[in-house]
Amino acid sequence: MSEQGRSFYEQAGSAKRILVLDLGFLGDTVHLIPALHEIRRAWPTAELDVMAEEKAKQILEIVPGLNAILGYPRFPKGPKWYEDFGRVKNLRARRYDAVINLNGSDRSSILTRASGAKWRLGRVPPKPAAFWKHCFTHPVDVPHGGRPVFQQRWECLQAAGIPVGEEAIFAVKIPAAIESAVDVKLDGERGFIHISPCTTQDQKELPMKELAKLVSALVADKTGPKVVLSCAPNERERGKVAELITHLPQKPWRVFAGDLSLLELAAVMGRAQRHFGGDSGALHLALMMNTPTVSWFRDYSGKIEWLPPGTAHRTVLGQESPEGLQGLTAEQLLVAYHG
């Protein structure tokens, strides 16, 4: 690790205004939360802002200690480089003393440099562009892969000399208004099974036949918990849930076909006994809310970065295909659940 990176906290410890910049999607934003907790502890009186992807920034509303949450549009398509001029102007107007960027993507790196901050911490990406080194005053070269993303980001802070606790913590607080709304939707119930049947891509999902067998078995178990099923508020996922319902002998206790906000979904997840789902934002929310999971995942080299770690989380791997994950069954997932 470079001495240049280690000196970041020593030099920027006096910063009064700090921006954490990460333009990843929902999973990336969730995995940023433990680092935000440590940054707030290290700079208890500084103004701490975060810039995150527009659709993911809502989850940061439940992270204590943030002063402002700035959005950046990336879905379905990000802006052209010249469309960032207004955002750069706004960043510079905020007069940040320090920017912390643990992502290292090209666009986020350019925005870091353009912010005008005196101290700029950046994690070296696997294949840095030629201009990358000019974007940061303090690079940290923490190895990529091999452990969860949230752990890697926590290690980046250590590498920059920032004091951190003994372990990464997902410190969040659901607002009382959200808890009350979820109480109504769930009749105050807790300890149920939550199922998120969809991901963003067909090839990462359970084939409909196996999905229907899994949900049917969980719903039919009268000695087990009630079943809550939910999906995102888009036409694709709503259509898949509607199709799934036609294959079930009995409907789950609650079906939320796109009518939960992101924060309501987090609150629902926090009340669940177990979450079932694939490689999606819902799985990361379960990790954030400390809810045990059973997940179906494609078998690929980088999976360890996104799989929830620990014995409370169980995963069955399959092979990616246009028809969904192959080589795994509902029976295997039920064994993982009961085991």
Automatic annotation (TrEMBL):
<dbReference type="InterPro" id="IPR002201">
    <property type="entry name" value="Glyco_trans_9"/>
</dbReference>
<protein>
    <submittedName>
        <fullName>Uncharacterized protein</fullName>
    </submittedName>
</protein>
<dbReference type="InterPro" id="IPR051199">
    <property type="entry name" value="LPS_LOS_Heptosyltrfase"/>
</dbReference>
<dbReference type="GO" id="GO:0008713">
    <property type="term" value="F:ADP-heptose-lipopolysaccharide heptosyltransferase activity"/>
</dbReference>
<dbReference type="GO" id="GO:0005829">
    <property type="term" value="C:cytosol"/>
</dbReference>
<dbReference type="GO" id="GO:0009244">
    <property type="term" value="P:lipopolysaccharide core region biosynthetic process"/>
</dbReference>
<keyword id="KW-0808">Transferase</keyword>
<dbReference type="Pfam" id="PF01075">
    <property type="entry name" value="Glyco_transf_9"/>
</dbReference>
<keyword id="KW-0328">Glycosyltransferase</keyword>
